[in-house]
């Protein structure tokens, strides 16, 4: 007796279900929001306040967990305002941090200079921490290739040409060293009203932040009432800048063929934790 032939027909395809589709998208969205809220988020540099270390057009990864979590950590503002942080700690001096501006709630990026109890002062551009001037050494000028994202139209004295004819901006640069040994370069192009400040002692629950471009940064030296940060509450720290993923010079358009030419290849995966 012959055995019955095996059934080779394909199993019936389950019917389309809007409920299942919505559930799958909801899980995906929750995963993305969880990563964005508690692990890491991307960040775009929109201004020149952190030149020459960060340029307009740089894209960064900001880790969310190094300083713990506050009511501002979730990507969706669902928590009421409250003091303190879960698993919290203060940034180390020299850390580049993203914060929520106390004035408008926008994300800003600055460098940590003073912690609670520190006294911060500037005299003619020299930074004093707890009464002692930070070591400050002049470095070779920072050279930035002129592009739609980086130009010096209001400072023509800093514009020049490379040997191959490439237009560049060359900015006076000074390297500061914090008491913990962290070093970073700052731009200081001329004497401004922000080059003299304080002394101010940072109160408990706040941090003092500054931009590396000392002549073009609305940081803790500037009160929120006139567009600055002022002293930043501990809870407003979003995370720590880790590294640059890629950078665009602003010459790209909607045409994908222009994107490759706009890449600043030498800036990809540059660490911000030196």
Q: What's the helix and strand layout?
A:
Elements: H1 18-38, E1 40-44, E2 58-63, E3 96-100, E4 107-114, E5 119-123, E6 126-129, E7 132-133, E8 136-145, E9 159-161, E10 167-177, E11 183-187, E12 197-201, E13 206-210, E14 232-233, E15 237-247, H2 259-262
Antiparallel strand pairs: 1-2, 2-15, 3-4, 3-15, 4-13, 5-6, 5-12, 6-7, 8-10, 9-10, 10-11, 13-14
What are its keywords?
single chain; about 270 residues; mainly beta; Umud Fragment, subunit A; seven-stranded antiparallel β-sheet; four-stranded antiparallel β-sheet; globular
Describe this structure in words.
There is one protein chain. The protein has 274 residues and is mainly beta. The chain has a single domain, classed as Umud Fragment, subunit A. Helix content is 9%, strand content 32%. It contains two helices and 15 strands. The chain has helices at 18-38, 259-262, and strands at residues 40-44, 58-63, 96-100, 107-114, 119-123, 126-129, 132-133, 136-145, 159-161, 167-177, 183-187, 197-201, 206-210, 232-233, 237-247. The strands form three sheets. It has a seven-stranded antiparallel beta sheet. A hairpin with a 5-residue loop joins strand 9 (159-161) and strand 10 (167-177). The longest helix is centred in the first third of the chain and has 21 residues, at 18-38. The protein starts with 17 loop residues before the first helix and ends in a 12-residue tail after the last helix.
What fraction of the residues are assigned to beta strands by DSSP?
25-35%
Number of strands: 15
At the fold tier of CATH, the topology name is Umud Fragment, subunit A
CATH class: Mainly Beta
CA radius of gyration is: 24 Å
- End-to-end Cα distance, whole Å, is 80 Å
Largest sheet: 7 strands, antiparallel
Number of domains: 1
């Amino acid at each position: 007796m012959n055995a019955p032939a095996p059934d080779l027909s394909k199993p019936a395809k389950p019917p389309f279900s809007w409920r299942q589709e919505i559930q799958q998208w909801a899980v995906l969205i929750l995963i993305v929001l969880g990563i964005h809220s508690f692990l890491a988020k991307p960040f775009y540099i929109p201004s020149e306040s952190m030149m020459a270390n960060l340029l307009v057009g740089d894209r960064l990864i900001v880790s969310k967990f190094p300083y713990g979590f506050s009511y501002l950590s979730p990507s969706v503002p669902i928590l009421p305002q409250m003091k303190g942080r879960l698993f919290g700690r203060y940034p180390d001096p020299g850390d580049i941090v993203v914060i929520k501006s106390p004035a408008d709630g926008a994300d800003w990026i600055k460098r940590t200079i003073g912690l609670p109890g520190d006294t911060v002062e500037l005299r003619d551009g020299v930074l004093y921490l707890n009464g002692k001037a930070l070591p400050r050494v002049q470095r070779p000028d920072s050279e930035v290739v002129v592009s739609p994202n980086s130009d010096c139209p209001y400072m023509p004295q800093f514009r020049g040409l490379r040997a191959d004819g490439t237009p560049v901006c060359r900015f006076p640069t000074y390297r500061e060293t914090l008491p913990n040994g962290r070093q970073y370069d700052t731009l200081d192009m001329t004497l401004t009203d922000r080059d003299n400040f304080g002394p101010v002692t940072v109160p408990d629950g706040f941090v003092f932040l500054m931009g590396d471009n000392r002549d073009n940064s609305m940081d803790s030296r500037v009160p929120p009432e006139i567009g600055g940060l002022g002293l930043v509450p501990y809870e407003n720290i979003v995370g720590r800048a880790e590294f640059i993923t890629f950078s665009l010079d602003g010459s790209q358009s909607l045409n994908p063929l222009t994107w490759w030419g706009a890449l600043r290849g030498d800036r990809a995966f540059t660490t911000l934790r030196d």
